[in-house]
Amino acid sequence: MFRAARPDDFAQIIDLYRQLNPDDPVLDDGADEAAFQRILGSPGLHLFVLESDGIVVATTYLNVIPNISRSASPYAVIENVVVERARRGTGLGRQIMAGTLQAAWDAGCYKAMLMTGSRDAATHGFYRACGFSADVKTAYHARPTNARSNTQDS
Q1: Which residues, in sequence order, are bridge partners of residue 52?
Q2: Residue 28 CA to chain centroid, in angstroms?
Q3: Is the Cβ–Cβ distance between 29 and 7 less than 8 Å?
């Protein structure tokens, strides 16, 4: 079942994020849960999950961003796409991406973007199969020199 994340999904989503970025530090100050609550309570920010038998098996994060150009149509940025490691290759990724893209289109977005740090051809094939194109624009990425997080992105 594709649905919006609920407050009680936090632990399962964090477990998926640890599969995505295993080198991220475990936070013990509650900052991650506070950010999770802010996301759930913010218009335009959508954390989605795919649930199977009561277990969160995939997640995506959709940001709908207001825009002045393109007839004031918003655009979407998708982040943190994760499918439970043992269930990859079963169609769950395509299912959650289809729901996420539909949410972007339903919000009136004229485009949806994502970036991946993966060099794995299968990852790029997955995104192409979901309707993304890598040859439309060039992405650039910058981080502050004192960034807390590691340099590998999803």
Answers
A1: 55
A2: 23
A3: no
Q: Pairing mode, if any, of strands 75-83 and 45-52? A: unpaired
Please report where in the chains the tokens 């943190």 appear, as a residue.
80
Segment 28-81, tens digit of pLDDT: 999 999 999 999 999 999 999 999 999 999 999 999 999 999 999 999 999 999
CA distances from 72 to 109, 134, 154 (A): 10, 25, 29
CA distance 28 to 64: 30
State pTM to two decimals.
0.89
Q: How far does the chain reach from its first CA to its final CA, in angstroms? A: 24
Q: Across the strands, what pairs with 112? A: 76
DSSP run (H or E) holding 24: none
CA–CA gap between residue 22 and residue 15 (Å, rounded)? 10
Phi then psi for residue 77, to 5 deg, are: -120, 130
